[in-house]
Structures are given as C-alpha cells and as structure tokens.
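In line with agreed milestones, work has continued on tokenised descriptions of protein folds. One protein thus recorded appears below exactly as we store it:

>
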Amino acid sequence: MLQILLGSSLGPARTADPALARLVTQGRGSLAFLIGDSECRQRLLGACINWDRVLLAFEQDHAVGYVAFKHDARGPFALRSKPFVREFGRVMGWLRFAGFCLSECREWRYPFLLYGLRVDKSARNQGVGSGLVQACCAHARMSGFREVFLEVPLDNDRARQLYLHNGFRLLRKRWVPFPPVRTMHRPMEAAL
C-alpha cells in the first residue's frame, strides 16, 4: 500500500536517515556540470534538505520516491556555500555555488513549482509517480495556491507524459539556461 507523507512529519530521527537524503539528492542531474554526480550531490545537499518541501512515497515502510516543491522563496534545499568550497576548493567552489544559486533563483518566478520528482526503478509503472504528482497538487491547493508549474527537460518524454496524464498542459520551451526545458502548468480547478 502506497503511503505519501510530508518529510517534516517524519521527525528528526527518520529524516536523519542517509538513505532518505540520498533519495532526495538524486535529482538535479541536469545540473551535474555544476553539482557533480549523485555521490557529490549527496555530499553537497544531503545535510541541507528542507523536509517541509518534500513529499515521500513509502511502500511497506520503504521509501520508493519523492516529489519536491518550491513556494514562498523556499525550496527543498537550503543553499549553503561551505559544502561547495569543501568539495571543489575556494574558487571553483564559489563559482559552482553561484551557478547553482542562479539556477535555483530563476525558478522563483513561479508561485508554486513542482521542483523535482523521482521514483525508484523497482517501483515505476505502479502509480507511484502519479500518486506523488497528485499529492503535490493537493498540497499546493491546501496551501492556497491556484496553480502548479514545473519545468521538464525537452528530452524527457516519459516525465512529460506523466505530467500530461495528471492534468498538466504544455506552455512554452525555454532555451536558456541549459538544458532546454518545457514549462508545464496545471490549474487547481482541473479535475482528473
């Protein structure tokens, strides 16, 4: 049975679990040129997760996916320069940190942004992704937002189809910053 919970409701002992942090930091692969591979992302972002901006999907007490979101000038990660400097050195660390901050800040134009979604390969095609998208939209609605936006890479047909299936519609292509992404939008009035 699929259970979806807000990360902050799990309590500090559970959110301290490195496996949960590893799951949440696996996203942002499109920014690998700035924040490195999955192990590097874990070191950079694992200790600065805002758990009140993450919904986690559990099957039999095992985390199988997450959806993260941004609103009110706060996203799933607290931006901190120290891990970047420690990982890449003073100059390159600050440059990469600045690039990451620019990437993060450009998304603040959306009132509510579905920031990222990931489902373990073993749990795909079982409704987990749709459950997370629906839970994120319900959270937005309960928080008073009338619409949810997201950006999906142009080459990610699977994700685009998931979002279309869950009531999102295509808006426009964005060519800068790279990689090119497509903005999608779902008004909260849309019934599925």
Remarks:
- The mean pLDDT is 88.
- DSSP finds eight helices and seven strands in the chain.
- The longest strand covers residues 62-71.
